[in-house]
Amino acid sequence: MFRSAILKLTGAYLLVLMVISLLFSFAIFQITSREIDTRLQHLQTSFQARGFTDLGSGLRTDEAADASNHIIIQLLYANLIVLGGGGLVSYLFARRTLRPIQEAHEAQSRFTSDASHELRTPLAAMKAEIEVTLRDKLANMSDYKEVLESNLEEVEKLTALSEMLLNLSRLEHDTLNKTTFSLHDATEETIKRYTEKDRISITSSKKPIIYANHTAVSELLSILIDNALKHSTPKSKIVITISAKDDKISFDISNEGGGIDAERLPHIFDRFYQADSSRTSGKQKGYGLGLALAKRLVELQDGDLTVISGVEQVTTFTVLFPSYQKNASKI
User: What CATH number does the domain containing 299 carry?
Assistant: First the structure.
């Protein structure tokens, strides 16, 4: 599809280029011919003044015809060069023009394919469990209850996945209303929701004020804390540090665990990418959408999200928010 679109766009670019080239060629031919004719007329007049009437007239005609033929040939060569070079340049420009659209289309196709796969997997598991139980003539109430509980877990996973997909889709074209609030207070409010809050420590030299969407920041903090708890060693500490850096407010969250190797690190914000699926399974297994959603939430706050990690090293996610002072003129 994109190959055909590139060729069509190349043809359109080349057509415009050749029309312009031919118009310039026609204009150059007219101007040059007129200039040559004027000069030859002066030369003929000079010859006639000296009594060479026949010689002057014949010279003007021959020179004018020869000059016109020479100009036409030169313009023809020039247009052939424009056609060849312009075709190559038009093709390169067409590819460059369509590349962002092609990349977006491929990303959307991958996203749809991955989403379909993630939705199909729990549905297939539920269907298999139900079919096996229904065919079991010895199944009792306890067996039916076990299947229902298992299916309920899958339904909860599907619900969580659907919410993630809807949030990602909504955030692609969403704008958020922003207010000023304390990042420290928002972090403390988020931590209170966790049963493992004793594992989480927070330090802040000040209580910096940020200019952002409170709900979006709370969701972002939840994703990063969930991720830190999920991928940290049992009973290890999750360390959160909030500080001010120039015109930015920094939120750092660190955890001790298996870490992420350098090869996988650049991809952890990609949708459905899981840095190490072997470390999470069952209820702990995610869909690889949390960090993609976190990245988008940070972008909507005009912030920046980065990560530093290594195999068997501390993993630290850093979010830089614009400070209240930097955005005071926007409020």
Answer: 3.30.565.10
